């Protein structure tokens, strides 16, 4: 009997194994050979043996590629805000390929098999599908394989650890609450699937707009291909052919949107911890900043301000009168940001929960019951932020906090995170009416929460700009929110990693980013680490100190007098630089150029900048080079790209194109200014609402190359700039013509500066200049500078010599 049974099983097993469908399901399927093509309104649709491929023009340098074995998805993109425009200007059907042109790009579609190749208009190959793998499917998963080009490097992909040059590494996009992440940990909290490929002095960009769990391989464990793919959904990517990294960023942010002007107070120093309470402690904290003359603008309230962690409530014992407290803080020039998590406590009688139930706002299992998971408040339900009605509902819940005077909202835990961190993949989402599961919604959940927060708060705040901060995000988040890099660790490695994370998010279109100063958790932040970290962070877009529950105090004065002095020095510097920083935000708003700029933006093909010894360096705004150095080092080896550089603190000049050893005591971070730089600064103020002495310090650094700078100013707190309520003027330095031009002001905002003090650096022998036709003598300024003070007026002023 036993043997017979065994034989029957063996035969059945053999039959099953030899069934072709069974075997085929386990092997990959390639797109196959060409069968036909036809024109579509903005491109072409190609049929191939195993799938269809569509190419759509979004602009002369932007082509969208989609491929599916079934029907194309109709769910709208959460990232893309522009429509296709234009079409291929020529389509040639040749024997073995289709040749399509946009004027700027040539796209070849090889026929047997179907493969896509991109060329620039000079006929140089930018990017091509791997000839054997191309677009493939493995079960529901789809991947596009690209042939590696000689010397190809990859940069970007957002909040990813590892090197600036991502060649040889692979990454996963799956938003993850990853506390105390390793310095090579992945995935982290956000998915920003845009990267740039560089080779042969050419650059291109790829944005893989698929929200499922995705994998990017930049030649990890292989020398054949780079690839991007996801476990489900369709192959859907945008190819950008730009002339420079800056061009690519402009195109990418044209597609996915740009930052609005943030509230200026969100560019000041921000003090947070888990958690400040009760109200008297918050008020004392604010007073201490003012007494110690350490400028600051924002205090954060972490989860303890709430009643039993229930969102949109106050703990009445700790904060009996929130609006009175916030009024007092306002009088001292402080804004309050409160944390708001997505989980709504399941508790009958709690108004936010009741209202969510009544309006059917929560994510459900397929059997119609609400998905519950445990997090800070206990068992919670989770709003479906992919439903427009739910976003409006949630946005309105901020009403009470706004009425109390809160002006900023911090969306944490929105990966979404819960205890156990294992969200069920089958729970269902609206997906703008197109329905989908957690597998598809997960990576956009945090972004849609931040969107709902931003839009709700904007509506409630009577024309004032809210500050929104999110931990989880997807491409396009820059339209709604700032990002911080989550639960980092108090270590030098993390401090240095933070620069790369921030720079890499800038390379993925997100300019308003920062990391917890001093490290959020792990060990104890020592005085050296805090001092160094706050100096570096003063030159990052989002400038906030934060630390975990039960950690030692992290306020700048708690590490001893010398660290207090260093903190004050760098925070002062930050406030002095605000006119320059704000103008850099305007540039981000207009062009997508980040504030913290990896050297790969301006020095793309200088191989030294990719050297791991120098890869943390970046430009802060157009002309300040920051070289992070660990807190253990008193000297730093810094790579200065080609050109001439001034050490900002001493005025000492260096020739670029080489690495230099510089001293780097804790009190003097290596920071350099590019020759020719134009840097508007102001007097030290204690918060961003103060006017200071009304004098703009227009710093000009002598150099041999001409330079132009766009200065921007507005009220800093409303959206009136969208209707012309701003001031813009160009400052130009032309060394050959020996003149400096303060351009005519544009726009109808009146500058807060009534004087402009021109501060000349490195103009050694000069003792007078002509202003118009009048000769004026220069005054000796600080260090080696010479100065000249002018009355500010809106007309053009020319200084010559
Ligand atoms: O489970 O709100 O990243 O900044 O202080 C931890 C408490 C929840 C994680 C955030 C951190 C915040 C903390 N939160």
Automatic annotation (TrEMBL):
Gene3D superfamilies named among the record's database cross-references: Glycosidases (3.20.20.80), glycosyl hydrolase (family 31) (2.60.40.1760), Golgi alpha-mannosidase II (2.60.40.1180)
CDD domains assigned: GH31_glucosidase_II_MalA (cd06604), GH31_N (cd14752)
Glycosyl hydrolase family 31 C-terminal domain location: 592-679
Alphabetized UniProt keyword annotations: Glycosidase, Hydrolase, Signal
Domain Glycoside hydrolase family 31 N-terminal: 53-216
Keyword Signal part of the UniProt annotation: yes
GO terms, molecular function: carbohydrate binding; hydrolase activity, hydrolyzing O-glycosyl compounds
Similarity annotation: Belongs to the glycosyl hydrolase 31 family.
Protein name: Alpha-glucosidase
Source species taxonomy: Bacteria, Pseudomonadati, Bacteroidota, Bacteroidia, Marinilabiliales
């Amino acid at each position: 009997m036993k043997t017979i049974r065994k034989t029957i099983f063996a035969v059945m097993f053999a039959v099953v194994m030899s069934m072709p469908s069974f075997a085929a399901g386990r092997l990959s399927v390639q797109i196959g050979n060409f069968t036909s093509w036809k024109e579509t309104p903005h491109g072409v649709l190609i049929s191939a043996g195993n799938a269809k491929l569509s190419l759509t023009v979004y602009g002369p340098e932007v082509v969208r590629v989609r491929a599916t074995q079934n029907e194309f998805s109709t769910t709208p993109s959460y990232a893309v805000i522009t429509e296709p425009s234009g079409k291929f200007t020529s389509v040639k059907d040749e024997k073995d390929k289709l040749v399509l042109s946009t004027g700027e790009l040539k796209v070849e579609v090889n026929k047997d098999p179907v493969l896509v190749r991109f060329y620039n208009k000079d006929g140089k190959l930018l990017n091509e599908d791997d000839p054997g793998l191309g677009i493939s499917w493995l079960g529901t998963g789809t991947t596009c394989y690209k042939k590696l080009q000689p010397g190809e490097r990859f940069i970007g992909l957002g909040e990813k650890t590892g090197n600036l040059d991502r060649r040889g590494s692979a990454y996963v996009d799956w938003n993850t609450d990853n506390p105390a992440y390793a310095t090579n940990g992945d995935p982290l909290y956000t998915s920003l699937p845009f990267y740039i490929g560089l080779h042969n002095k050419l650059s291109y960009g790829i944005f893989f707009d698929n929200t499922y769990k995705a994998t990017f391989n930049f030649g990890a464990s292989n020398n054949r291909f780079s690839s991007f793919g996801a476990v489900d959904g369709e192959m859907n990517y945008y190819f950008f052919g730009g002339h420079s990294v800056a061009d690519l960023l402009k195109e990418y942010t044209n597609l996915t949107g740009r930052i609005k002007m943030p509230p200026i107070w969100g560019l000041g120093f921000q003090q947070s911890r888990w958690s400040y309470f009760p109200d008297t402690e918050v008020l004392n904290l604010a007073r201490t900043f003012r007494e110690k003359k350490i400028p600051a603008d924002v205090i954060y309230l972490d989860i303890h301000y709430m009643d039993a962690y229930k969102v949109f409530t106050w703990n009445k014992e700790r904060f009996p009168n929130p609006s009175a407290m916030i009024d007092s803080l306002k009088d001292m020039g402080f804004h309050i940001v409160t944390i708001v998590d997505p989980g709504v406590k399941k508790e009958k009688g709690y108004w936010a929960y009741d209202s969510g139930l009544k309006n059917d706002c929560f994510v459900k299992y397929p059997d119609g019951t609400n998905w519950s998971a445990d997090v800070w408040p206990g068992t919670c339900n989770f709003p479906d932020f992919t439903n427009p009605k739910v976003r409006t509902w949630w946005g309105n819940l901020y009403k009470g906090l706004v009425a109390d005077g809160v002006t900023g909202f911090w969306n944490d835990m929105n990966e979404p995170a819960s205890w156990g961190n294992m969200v069920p993949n089958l729970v269902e989402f609206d997906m703008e009416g197109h329905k989908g599961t957690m597998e598809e919604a997960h990576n956009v959940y945090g972004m849609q929460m931040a969107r709902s927060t931003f839009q709700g708060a904007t509506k409630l705040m009577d024309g004032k700009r809210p500050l929104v901060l999110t931990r989880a995000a997807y491409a396009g988040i820059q339209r709604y929110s700032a990002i911080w890099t989550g639960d980092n660790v108090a270590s030098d490695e993390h401090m240095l990693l933070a620069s790369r994370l921030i720079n890499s998010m800038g390379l993925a279109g997100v300019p308003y980013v920062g990391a917890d100063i001093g490290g959020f958790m792990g060990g104890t932040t020592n005085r050296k680490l805090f001092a160094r970290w706050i100096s570096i962070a003063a030159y990052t877009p989002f400038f906030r100190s934060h630390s975990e529950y039960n950690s030692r105090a992290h306020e700048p004065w708690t590490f001893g007098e010398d660290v207090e002095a260093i903190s004050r020095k760098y925070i002062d510097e930050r406030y002095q630089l605000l006119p320059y920083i704000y103008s850099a935000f305007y540039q981000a708003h207009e062009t997508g150029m980040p504030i913290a700029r990896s050297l790969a933006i301006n020095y793309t093909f200088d191989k030294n900048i990719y050297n791991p010894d120098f890869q943390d360096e970046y430009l802060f705004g157009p002309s300040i080079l920051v070289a992070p150095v660990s807190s253990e080092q008193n000297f730093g080896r810094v790579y200065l790209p080609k050109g001439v550089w001034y050490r900002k603190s001493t005025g000492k000049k260096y020739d670029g194109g080489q690495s230099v050893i510089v001293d780097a005591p804790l009190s003097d971070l290596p920071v350099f200014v590019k020759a020719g730089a134009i840097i508007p600064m102001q007097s030290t103020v204690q918060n961003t609402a103060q006017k200071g002495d009304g004098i703009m310090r227009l710093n000009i650094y002598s150099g041999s190359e001409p330079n132009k700078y766009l200065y921007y100013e507005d009220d800093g707190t409303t959206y009136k700039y969208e209707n012309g309520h701003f001031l813009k003027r160009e400052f130009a330095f032309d060394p050959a013509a020996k003149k400096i031009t303060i351009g005519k002001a544009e726009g109808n905002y009146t500058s807060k500066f009534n004087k402009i003090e021109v501060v000349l650096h490195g103009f050694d022998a000069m003792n007078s200049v002509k202003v118009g036709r009048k000769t004026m003598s220069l005054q000796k300024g600080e260090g080696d500078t010479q100065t000249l003070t002018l009355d500010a007026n809106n007309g053009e002023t020319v200084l010559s010599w």
